[in-house]
Amino acid sequence: MKDILNIVFRLTVSCLMAAMVMGAAFILTDKAKKHNEHAREERTMYSLLGYGEGKPVPSTLALHQIYRYVITEPGRQLIGYLVPTTHAGKTGYTLVSLDLEGKMADRKAVALDVEQSREKEDRDKAILAVIGPGKEIRFADHTIVVTDNGKRVAYLLGGKFPGFKTFINVMLALDQQFTTLGLEVLENEEDPGLGAEIEKDYFKNQFKGRAVDVLKGLQVVKEPLPDQYRQALEGRLAGADVSRIMEQFKDKNIYALTGATISSRMLTDGLKGMVGKFVYRLDILDHVLNEQKIAVSF
Amino acid sequence: MTTSSNTKTPWELLSRGILSENPIFRLALSMCPAVGISTTVMNGLMLGVAVLLVQVFSSVTISLFKNQIHPRIRIPTYTLTIATWVTVIDLVMAAYLPGAYAKMGIFIKLIVAFAIITMRLEMFACKENAADSFWDGVGMGLGFMVGMVVIGFVRELLGSGAILGYDVLGFKPLLFFILPSAGFFVVGLMMAFFNWVELVYKRRKGIQS
């Protein structure tokens, strides 16, 4: 009995010490970790929009986040868009709820600032507070509308869809005509050297410059990637040559990765689905925002 | 297998982990990551650095608290120690070394269940002083890193025709080497090489096996 108590005591002390060390590390690093995650996300966004070391971000450029939620209440389901709105010169958020027919069901101001809106926990709490009891919410996705001098210039879409192994997490940039500006694979667990090559320039840049109608009909072909096209995709040619070659291939299908046709196809189909749904949803949302004269900041 | 320092010098402790008791090629431990992750030199190097850090911190911690650990719960205590250091290193790197973390992040979390680390805590750190445990941890960590880099080099060159991501051959000689099953071939060949080196060394020195 004495031995058991001794073991229980020592194990408890070990666990408490471990918890204290991990807890202290978490408290000391949490702020910096969140800051880094945000900075990394922002860097990816700007790089997809074509800004970087050689081309600084103009001060007139602004990113506006739209969060989409599924709201479940007894007897019906709604789609809630948390959109940034401007009221008396101040930016706040409004929850615009649409029914499944795409008609506006409800509209409520949400007590959130831009910083708070980035944290899912704060966002959920604020939405639940305005929609009232007895309703459930589920975060679906988020989109960023990019404006320059108040005029829409691009959209950034985050998406997650099945790959060959697990999920592929991407960010896609579209211009105002929904032509692809760039693709970044944020996370994937495909086979290294095979499916994981989806994040390499020579594959992901094949989606660059594709008009929405072309993208919707894209197929994956098991043919060798032409050498000149590969060089253009990897940026190994002069700027004018890259543009000329990319123009030549802008209506062609996607060349599959060697030994990873399924990964190539899953990514292509995932992007097609993402863009198709986005264009459809944005059209509905814009229609409601204009109809209801909601003063959104984008 | 040597289980204690027996007044060995730091250099002897270091070289033992890298050569005579190399975790992958001599002790055949932590083979899952060796074949699963080592598809490129960079992957091998990243996982190697992560294991080195966790091994050193865990070895020193166990060595410092060895008299307080009850013998019947030593394995859970080792696991708890390793998990704690893995978590701390993961959090610190994510916060202060975001560039390195972007590349190494996924590897660090894998280390909790590595046999090589638990084995060194059981065979060495729980019996020796903190300084010797530190050098033993560094040696074993470096040995693991060297093993991973060598396997990654062979697989990346033969599987992708590249080294450190740079295309050196212009074609992929044997795509099969990218797959986990090929990792066993490379590990097997390297084990045979290490055994041959040992045999030659012993013959020259006139040592009976």
Index terms:
heterodimer, A: 298 residues, alpha+beta, eight-stranded antiparallel sheet, two-stranded parallel sheet, 8 helices, 10 strands, 41% helix, 29% strand, globular, B: 209 residues, mainly alpha, two-stranded antiparallel sheet, 2 strands, 69% helix
Give an overview in words:
The complex is a heterodimer of chains A (298) and B (209). Chain A is α+β, with helices and mostly antiparallel strands and 298 residues long. In chain A, strands 4-3-2-1-5-6-7-8 form an 8-stranded antiparallel sheet, with helices on both faces. Chain A has a two-stranded parallel sheet with strand order 9-10. In chain A, strand 6 and strand 7 form a beta hairpin. In chain A, helix 6 packs across helix 7. Chain A starts with a helix and ends in a 7-residue tail after the last helix. In chain B, 69% of the residues lie in helices and 2% in strands. Chain B is mainly alpha-helical. The model of chain B has no long low-confidence stretch (mean pLDDT 86). In chain B, strands 1-2 form a two-stranded antiparallel sheet. The two termini of chain B are 13 Å apart. Chain B is globular. The longest helix of chain B is centred in the C-terminal third of the chain and has 31 residues. Chain B has 8 helices and 2 strands, in the order αααααααββα. In chain B, a hairpin with a 2-residue loop joins strand 1 and strand 2. Chains A and B meet through helix 1 of A and helix 4, helix 5 and helix 7 of B.
